[in-house]
From TrEMBL:
Membrane in keyword set: yes
Listed transmembrane segments: 81-99
Organism annotation: Sorangium cellulosum (strain So ce56) (Polyangium cellulosum (strain So ce56))
Biased composition (Low complexity): 37-56, 65-74
Keywords for the protein's UniProt record, in alphabetical order: Membrane, Transmembrane, Transmembrane helix
Ranges of Basic and acidic residues composition bias in the record: 1-13, 24-36
Region (Disordered): 1-74
The protein, known as: Uncharacterized protein
Length: 241
């Protein structure tokens, strides 16, 4: 087809002028930046998960209460108290027994019949019924409360001035003596409730061979392998602590 010179000189209407093309590109860039700026606050406003947030254990419902720890049974506490009391009672009995016994290797006094010695005897008020000895022997008319571990004295009365009992001094000397509980210092008033001591004159009269000794009316007899001095206690005075 032939074209005229006007057609050849007419610009192509499908192509935009250069200035208009640049303007369109500029608007496209501005629109893109605007959309990016609008999206940024939206992303920033979304709350982030807290770091280290505790996760619920698998299989555990929310709001479930923890199980209470099992309480100890009352029976075990009662058994512990009984065991404690038994131990304390055993220790008290052991201290009472060993407190009566002289220290191993302690040399006793060298008395002979007729000697008089000042002694300080340690006592408690119940010793009048707790202290006892057994022997079939009689020394200067004085004797123990028992002839044997199971038989009381059957050869006479039980006058305090004739009845021998075991005693321990404050310096751990032990002997048998009569007359203490008939002394005015121990009969004229109320005796102390705690352990106390009396100072007396001890008149030695002899020795008893291997007597049996008992420090408590409920206790067992202790068979001694040594001989014990016997005598009379007099002129006793209560020692004030």
């Amino acid at each position: 087809m032939a074209t005229s010179s006007e057609d050849r000189d007419r610009p192509d209407t499908d192509e935009a002028p250069p200035g208009e093309t640049d303007a369109q590109d500029t608007r496209s860039e501005e629109d893109g930046e605007g959309r990016a700026d609008a999206a940024a606050p939206a992303r920033a406003s979304r709350p982030a998960k807290q770091a280290g947030a505790a996760r619920r254990p698998a299989g555990k419902k929310p709001g479930a209460r923890p199980r209470a720890a099992a309480q100890p049974q009352g029976g075990s506490l009662g058994k512990s108290m009984i065991l404690f009391l038994i131990i304390i009672g055993g220790l008290a009995a052991a201290f009472a027994y060993f407190g009566r016994e002289p220290a191993a290797g302690t040399a006793g006094p060298k008395w002979k019949p007729g000697d008089k010695s000042q002694v300080e005897v340690t006592l408690v008020s119940t010793d009048i019924k707790d202290l006892a000895c057994w022997s079939a022997d009689e020394i200067s008319g004085r004797h123990c409360a028992f002839e044997s571990p199971t038989q009381g004295w059957s050869k006479g009365d039980a006058d305090d001035k004739k009845l021998l009992r075991p005693y321990t001094t404050t310096d751990r000397v032990q002997f048998l003596a009569a007359g203490l509980w008939s002394e005015p210092a121990l009969t004229s008033g109320k005796l102390p409730s705690a352990r106390f001591a009396v100072k007396c004159t001890y008149t030695v009269e002899g020795k008893m061979k291997r007597p049996g000794i008992r420090w408590s009316s409920e206790g067992a007899w202790l068979d001694r392998t040594d001989d014990w001095y016997t005598g009379l206690l007099s002129d006793c005075k209560l020692i004030t602590p």
